[in-house]
Amino acid sequence: GESVGLHLPTLSVQEGDNSIINCAYSNSASDYFIWYKQESGKGPQFIIDIRSNMDKRQGQRVTVLLNKTVKHLSLQIAATQPGDSAVYFCAENLPNDYKLSFGAGTTVTVRA
Amino acid sequence: NAGVTQTPKFQVLKTGQSMTLQCAQDMNHNSMYWYRQDPGMGLRLIYYSASEGTTDKGEVPNGYNVSRLNKREFSLRLESAAPSQTSVYFCASSRNYEQYFGPGTRLTVT
Fold it and tell me: Dihedral of the CA atoms B56, B99, A54, A102 (nearest 10)?
């Protein structure tokens, strides 16, 4: 993943509002995408993933949208909570290749 | 299950010293990875091991060596540490595409 165009390195959100984190990925052949959350001092943790044959996938309070036409991925967090403050990374993966390519990340800060 | 464990958590080295970062996973995963993370950047792959007995270079392998000791353990060695290797190092493992990460080792080279 790369951080171009719509990507913002930081995002400040009011508690209770919805958050939208954007990511532009680099390879049109990528067929699997994943979002990770990294809290301060910890390793990245899986949030949600999506395959290229889908354009939307929902989890608990999170939704990932995939637009293959413009190579864009977004993560929506509903009713953002203080515990959502972290750095969020998107990653992409090529077919038959277990290596992930990570974007630079977006730091989300939740205001009380 | 402990998941992915890494030792040590913190380390300070002088330029030219060597050390080995240890990583172990108890999830019976075939693939293991070493990444480095620098301020303001995403994770960059140093080396990976698709299965026991195999290792391959990633994006930034220079100055590092690895050993896949067995299915559980994958170590990263710095033979002659340099200040440019000051970073946070993460180990990960996976069965398929989803990677599980350890807590990281914060390394400072002076």
Answer: -70
Is there a contact between B101 and A44 if contact means CB atoms under 8 Å apart? Answer: yes
Confidence (pLDDT) at A7:
63
Q: How far is C-alpha A87 from the geometric centre of its chain's CA atoms?
A: 10
Contacts of residue B43 in chain A, CB cutoff 8 Å?
Answer: 44, 89, 102
B40 vs A9: CB contact, 8 Å cut-off?
A: yes
Answer yes or no: do A105 and B42 touch at CB < 8 A. Answer: yes
Select the residue of A41, A89, A93 nearest B97 (Cβ to Cβ). A93
CA nearest A103: which of B97, B46, B41, B104?
B41
The residues, ordered by sequence, that sit 6+ positions from A18 with a Cβ below 8 Å of its Cβ are: A76, A77, A78, A79, A80
Residues near B65 by Cβ (< 8 Å), separated by ≥ 6? B76, B77, B79
What is the per-residue pLDDT across B1-45, written as a single tens digit (0 to 9) for each? 789 999 999 999 999 999 999 999 999 999 999 999 998 778 999
pLDDT digits (tens, 9 = 90+) for B80-95: 999 999 999 999 999 8
Residue B93 β-bridge partners: B32, B100
